[in-house]
Amino acid sequence: MEIDKAVRECSDRRLQTKYKNAVYVIERSFILYSFEEVAFSFNGGKDSTVLLHLLRAGYFLHKKNCCDGKPADSEKRCPIRTIYFENSRAFPEIDSFTYKMAKVYELQLDIISLDFKSGLEDLARKKPIKAIFIGTRIGDPNAVGQEQFSPSSTGWPPFMRVNPILDWSYRDVWAFLITCKVPYCSLYDQGYTSIGSIHDTTPNELLRVTDSSNKAEQFKPAYQLSDGRLERAGRRKKTPLISDGADVVVNGVKSSPQPNRSLVASIIGVGDEILYGTFEHHLIISLCKKLHSIGWKVTHNAIVRNDIDSVAEEVELRKSTNDLVILIGGVGPLHSDVTVAGVAKSFDVRLAPDEEFEEHLRHLNGIQFTGDRNEMALLPEGITELLHHEMLPVPLIKCRNVIILSATNIEELNAQWGCLLELPETLLIQLSPFISKHLSTLITDMEISTSLQNLCLRFPDVCIAGHRKSREGPLIISFVGKDIARIEAASLDLSQNFKDGTFTETNCE
Ligand SMILES: Cc1cc2nc3c(=O)[nH]c(=O)nc-3n(C[C@H](O)[C@H](O)[C@H](O)COP(=O)(O)O)c2cc1C
Ligand SMILES: Nc1ncnc2c1ncn2[C@@H]1O[C@H](COP(=O)(O)OP(=O)(O)OP(=O)(O)O)[C@@H](O)[C@H]1O
Ligand SMILES: [Mg+2]
């Protein structure tokens, strides 16, 4: 069988292991379920193309091993029931590739023109389907919590989702397609790295090449994307990020601005040593200043213990009410480094080995891990995005709207912050900056308190605060906001309640 032979004869040990495991899952499924009870969910994408050829190999080997040594009637033919959910938003190239493959390999194609759930309900009524092969891979948004055999979710018709390539990486997918020299949809040679609908998919910007001679813009083929974590960079996010007026560019697509919205962040420092008072956390203060300088509001700072539950609780609390949560501290190989585990727990996912991250760590430390795996390379499964930048020795970890910084000193923090600002996927959009005005006065707190209270009610959009550096020194009233006219109006309003000369403008805070 040509697929089996190509993989067995190649020198890629890792691909051989992945292939062996996937074919094992497929062969066992053919034993567990009769041929009429299984279906293949095929949509012409790269992952389902890999699965198509694994199914062909698995079907052939199953026939050979289980049917009294009688091989399948043809190496090519794989008459498995194949379901394709067709819709008008699919790329024509995907449609035609799907139909072509179905013809070449004699798949029993069922074209379904309903949404996934209704289509599967309809299928369950008409056919005795018990298991469906799907090309889901860890890292796909819907892979969270899935195993190689995962029953369908509550509310869906009952069937087993069989995910033979769940643990395959982007690199494994391309290694397989190229090693086996099988055809794949032409869009992947035009820079598309993951394909959704015509409305939300563009070529991956990371593959763009500009030919300076004729100004033609081209894209390298998908298999040349070196960092598989960015395979979905050409897929537009379903919920565009919010902005406070400037154009927001998400994956190269401009979205309309939402004036006067602001973005909020929380910072969580992890470390018993900070709570004991033996270590001052200058990094958190510095992060506050950095966020403020790009127009973000910091709503909450917390210091938590080096304890998985303490981290998880705090992240859980902050992630739903903030646009971004930044964690700092508790990252590394020590027993007390529990930040990553805490983040996984807060999202209710397990930690799983991340081969790409492991390679970065190995490269950095030259470590030969003694155990099976390096514990530092265990990352929250299905929700982790590695943030790569040429200035970062190891990528930073992002899980949805939570970013984990590994900086231990101010120099490292400055470097990591600089990189975050340059990476579009960090969510750190630069907003219009905050403007502040400070008035200094020698009147007492008692004399000014009522006026300030009323002022706050009239100007809820301006942050008005008073502080003094010493009991005897002047009181400084600060006005902070984004609208200079409102800040001026608030400070004028206050001055008008007192006699001339009561306030002087000052630069110092
Ligand atoms: C054959 C098949 C079975 C699916 N089974 C489930 C399921 O059991 N539970 C579920 O929540 N979604 C299920 N889905 C939906 C997918 O998880 C996912 O929502 C879908 O692929 C849409 O992905 P997209 O939003 O990236 O297009 C299934 C999809 C297919 C094609
Ligand atoms: N329209 C569809 N019809 C049938 N199966 C589908 C459809 N859309 C998704 N699937 C199933 O879900 C799997 C995962 O889809 P996904 O889009 O992540 O991968 P892909 O389309 O194979 O490759 P790519 O990531 O490059 O788009 C597919 O491999 C296929 O099994
Ligand atoms: Mg796809």
UniProtKB/TrEMBL annotation:
Q: Which PANTHER family match?
A: FAD SYNTHASE, FAD SYNTHETASE-RELATED FMN ADENYLYLTRANSFERASE
Q: What class of enzyme is it?
A: transferase
Q: Which GO terms describe its molecular function?
A: ATP binding; FMN adenylyltransferase activity
- For the MoaB/Mog domain, which residue ranges apply? 266-399
Per its UniProt record, what Gene3D superfamilies does this chain match? HUPs (3.40.50.620), MoaB/Mog-like domain (3.40.980.10)
Pathway(s): Cofactor biosynthesis; FAD biosynthesis; FAD from FMN: step 1/1
> What Pfam families does the database record attribute to this sequence?
MoCF_biosynth, PAPS_reduct
GO biological process annotation, one example: FAD biosynthetic process
Please state the Enzyme Commission number of this protein.
2.7.7.2
Q: Source organism lineage?
A: Eukaryota, Viridiplantae, Streptophyta, Embryophyta, Tracheophyta
What protein name is recorded for this chain?
Answer: FAD synthase
Keyword annotations of the record: ATP-binding, FAD, Flavoprotein, FMN, Nucleotide-binding, Nucleotidyltransferase, Transferase
Q: Which domain of life is it from?
A: Eukaryota
So what does this thing catalyse? FMN + ATP + H(+) = FAD + diphosphate
